[in-house]
Every structure is written in C-alpha cells, then in structure tokens.
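Hello,

Our lab assistant flagged a job as stuck in the queue for most of the afternoon. It eventually completed. Since we weren't sure the result was trustworthy after the delay, we are filing this so someone can double-check. Below is the sequence as submitted and the structure that was eventually returned. Let us know if re-running is recommended.
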Amino acid sequence: MEDMRRCFPVVGPMIHESGTSPRHRPIDDYDAIVSRLSSICWDHYNDDEGYDRTSRRRRRSSSSSGGHHRHSLYVGSLGPCAYVRYRLGGSLLRRTHRACGGGGGRRWTCSTMTTTTTTTTTTDYDTERRRGLSMLRDAARIADLVLESSDDLRITLLEGERVGALALSAVVRHALGDRASANRAKDDLLDIGASSRRRIVLYGRCGYLHAIAFVRSGTNDDEYGQGAAARIVRAVLLEGERTSIETRSTTSGDMPLLWTWHGKAYLGAIHGVVGILFTLLCFRREVSSMGGAMDRIRTTITNLDRHCYASGNLMPSLGNESGDDRLVHLCHGAPGHVLLLVKAYEVFDVVSFLERAEEIARGVICRRGLLRKGLGLCHGISGNAYCFLSLYRGRRLWEQRTRESSTSGETISDKGDEWIRWAHTFARFGLENVNELFHVPDHPYSLYEGISGFVMLLHDLGDPDNSRFPCFEP
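-- returned structure --
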C-alpha cells in the first residue's frame, strides 16, 4: 500500500474554539503538495493508452458493458491526465502573465489567510511559463489519444469520453493560442448533438449542456452552441413542466418543475432536480426566452426547502420523509443544494438564497461533511469543501453588490473568511488522513472519486476568488 504521506510535510492538529469557525496551524507549501500529488497521479496512468494500471481489465470490460468509462472525466484518465494538467498549466501561465505585466501576483497563503505579493525572478517566471505550456500540450495530446481510441456515444461532459475529450481539446488549444484547432474541436462537439432523452447531469442532456458551458467559459465565447443549447433547454423545461403536472396526484404538488430518473424523482445534484436546475441557471439567456420559465425555476428552488430533513439536509428523492438522513455529498444531499442556492443568489440577486445556503452549510456540511468515503468530489471530502469555496465567492459577490448600492460609504465586513477557514480545515483533515482515505474509492486516482479531485481543491485554495467546482461550476 502506497504511503501518500511522503508527499508532504507533517501538519499540526486543527485548533477549535467553542462557538467559532476553526483555525489552523501553518502548512508549509500547498503548491509543492499539489505538484507531488499530481505527479503521482500522472505516473499511475499509462498516458499512451490512458488505462488505470490497477484495474485495466475491469475498465476494458466496463467500457463495453456501459459502466464507468476508462477515459471519462468522472473516473477515467481524462480527469487526472488531461483536466488536472489543463487547470495547473493554465494557472501557471496566468500567474506569470500577471506577474510580468504588473510586477507581482495576488496570492492567498494557506497559513495566514492573507494576500501577499510574490517576488520571483524573471528566470523563475520563464521556467513557470515553460512548465505551464508543457502541461497544456500534454493535456491536448492526451485528449487527442482518447479521440483516436474511443467510439463512446455518451453525450455528457463527465461520462462521455468523446464529449469530454472534445471539450478539453477546445479549451486547452484556446489556452495555447491555437484558435483553428480549438474551433475544430468546438464544431465537432456540436456535431455530436444531444440524442439522449435523459435529463440528469451525469448521464443525460444536461450533461451535454455542461459541456457547452465548459467550452463557453474556457474559450470566452458566450455565443458558443447557442442554437443547440436553446433546443435542449426548451426540451428540458417542457419535460419538467409535464412531469410536475403528471405527478401532482402522488406528490405535494409544490414543484413547478420536476424530473424523474428510473421512475423516481431524485433531488440531488448528479442524479436529480438540483443538478438540472443548476444547469438551467447557467443558461439564463436561453431560459429567459421561454415566458415564465425563470419564475418557475425560482419557485422550485424555494420549495426545495420543504423536502429537507429537520437537520436541513436535502432528501435523496421526493417523498423520502421516512428515510435515513445520512447522505451528505454532491450526488445526494446538502452539498449540491448549497451550490444551487449560491448560484440562485448570483442569478436572482435575492440574498435569502445565500443566507439559506450558509444556514445549510453550517448545520449539515460543517458538522457531517468529513466523510469516510474518500477524498473525491462526488462523495468525498473535497466535494464538500468546494461548497465552502462557493459560499466564499457568494459572499464576495454580496459585498460587491452591497458596496455598489450603498450611498453612505460604510465599510462592508468580509463575511467570506469563515468559509475560507472551513475549506482549509477540510483540506487539512484530508492531508492528515490521506493514507486511510486514499484507498477507499474504487478509482483512487480519479477526478470525481479519487485524489485528483483533492489536488484540484488544494490548488483552488491558493486562489479562491477564481475557484470552481471541477466540471460542474462553469
């Protein structure tokens, strides 16, 4: 069994004070930890084929049987080998660009929660720039290898091998300045279309919308895929209205929009209503073209509170009042609900959405979010910690809006620091328990189940203003 603790220095215990959010002792160098852990992930994969060396036979058989695909962003090679390189390489280029243009970069230190101005020589900047370009080129090469070897027909960003590879190819080549290749990948992605009748994020047409949103964000092209997105958004909304009407006799009838999967109205972010609503809010222009659709979305989000347990945790499915209140992760439970509420605040500018998200986070995720299922994004510690980063950005947006609307010039308190502290606390717990947590999931090196998601969390803690839940928040 690999000793993952060799990758980073020993850290001190967390400090808790009654009635306050946690503080913590300094951790020497998060950047070095990210570099070491990402290298371990890359060494684990055979980049020429993209197989997980520990489960090659299982991945080959699962690809033909419809299970998790060996090259997907979700649990396959694209996550660690291409997406992580894209994010890390892009950050290096942006850092050197800011520093060389302005004389310094604004960075958060993980030990003090304050900003510092980095002082780095021109030679160091040149080295970082070359490293960043090398990572991006490797990411592009791996995406090409997947496109050459895969005939996968799944249409979602997370599960679709070809869709994920094309989306990554587009954004990586855009970052490299190869606009012609980026545009070809964008066109090929649109050609795949969206034939699935499923709506959910992991397997359905909302997953294809996530691919479009991913490319829009990564290429600074808000017009990309507008026609395809409008058609899918319309179909998803009409299905939501129809299902809501058809199920009113068996439900409370308080959900103007409702979708089912395998005959069940799941509520979570990966398999259900929360994820679909979040996706629709990423396409405000397309949604707004349908009269009253934004109002129905807003009412549905508000009424989700009626389908929470007493603790504030979201039920896994509609009508599950008698079920166990035990699932606290992205695919089922409070974390996805928090991400949706923060997004709703961003879109509707209604502060009660943000306040409700904070209430749920304090009552559920802070208390029960340190999971035993591993370090991953979908049902692990990293995914729950990303909720805190989302809340931090939500509070930063609230501060900005409050200042802009204020006429008295009063000082606006920084309420986001609480969530930064919680995010670092969860990261520290992961570092302290990495050996126990690393081997729990079936795909321990992957993005959504394994340590690659943890690598992304540690990376985003260095620049929380630009953090995003990988492949979920555009």
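-- support follow-up --
The delay was a queue issue, not a problem with the job. The result is valid. The radius of gyration is 22 Å. Strands lie at 45-46, 51-52, 106-108, 115-117.
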